[in-house]
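Format notes (please read before filing issues)

Several people have asked whether sequences and structure tokens are stored in separate files. They are not. Every record keeps both together, in the order shown below: the sequence lines, then the token lines. Line labels are part of the format and must not be stripped during preprocessing.
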Amino acid sequence: MRDHHENFDRESGSVPQSTPRTDSPSYPYGGAYSPPQNTSSPNPQSYTWNAQTGEYHSGPHTPQAYRPVYTPQPTPPRKTRSTPFGVKLLAVFLCCAVTSVATLGAFVWMIQSGRVRIQAAEQDGGAAFTINRVVEAEPEAEMGAVSVMTDQDIAEQVVPSVVCIQNYQINDYYGFMQTSSRVAPAGEGSGIVMDAEGYILTNAHVVDGATSLKVVLYDGSSHEAELIGSDSLTDLAVIRIHTDSLQGTELTPASFGSSADLRVADKVIAIGNPGGSAFSSSVTIGYVSALNRAIPNQTTGYTMEYIQTDAAINPGNSGGALVNQYGQVIGINSAKIAATGYEGLGFAIPSDFAQTIVSDLIRYGYVKDRAMLGISGQFIDSLTGRFYGLPQGEYVATLNTAHAVASGLREGDVILSMNGTELTSEAVMRRMIHAGKPGDIMQLEVYRPSTRETLEIALTLSEYTGG
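Then the structure lines:
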């Protein structure tokens, strides 16, 4: 459940669990509380993953007294020729058309001039959830706009949408002359109900390595869940409760807002299960400390941009909701800095970014159109290279795709540069791969130890479908 990186560690998102005690008190999510194990790291600084309309005013009107200056005489009726029915019908049609065009033109003018504002919902045909944009409303506007909610109303609305996720794994127990295995809880995290169909959004590290998954709803009921898709690169995952197992229990989907509407110093609320089910449905309040905070993963080289917040986030909050002042989920709590002397440095994955990833996980089970080079290997720095008589670069251990084999690359080669960029670290290589798409051609400068020659090799990127 835990990957330790040099600077930015993903926490289990969950609190490691020991064998439950039968004498422990019960909590809203059910189950017993087990204190978290010591997860301190020798690293002094680490990241822990855990519509409106305007008014119309008429002018004053003063009635006037009029006296006729003449009396009209009655005019004898004249015979008139009847108009054909088709002409009448055409006249009515033209009149309606002119009226419609005029009305539409006036409405468009009112929108463009700001007299009418409409709340827009962003969602493509296969999006996992709808993102609602914030529309500032004047007091006169009652329809199509959201308004700021009190902290108490936000908590009352969103807390039922945040669930507890329990990760169960097979553990081996060694005894005298025998070995036994059993499924035991390995950790707990949080999740967000996306819809009434049972789809739940969480972090990948919350469900990592799970043999089975259990979801505990706000009402305390427990339900088995299946993993739909997980992406370790972005730390996002989707699980699902089958609705036929709910037996009348109704899910409470969360409302999602756009992280693009956030501004630094906006108030936000974090909702989740710090410490696991023992402290379920906890609410912490803070502010947006920074936006688009770019932090690279030292293992994968993938750089994510986060919402930084000082709302308290702890192990078990991972996968929970970061909510704006309109009661909309605008982030998925994922990480924090856990080091002596640091506090109030939590990070959440923006909702706008998560929507695309989550939609792919539901549709395909993986993130579509993500590129990979198609090799396995190890980066050799200059010091190690001098010891082995090799230059600095990526050592090719195996070729994993047909594209890699067809390129002419061989096992034992050392990749020195990609598209003219020198490989000074493995992170550089991975950033370049992640910036490409399957089918793109990568120009490699390769050193071949067997012939002591430097080659130019064109390799076509493949699609990565792993977790």
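For reference, the curators noted about this record: The radius of gyration is 31 Å. Residues 85-112 form the longest helix (28 residues).
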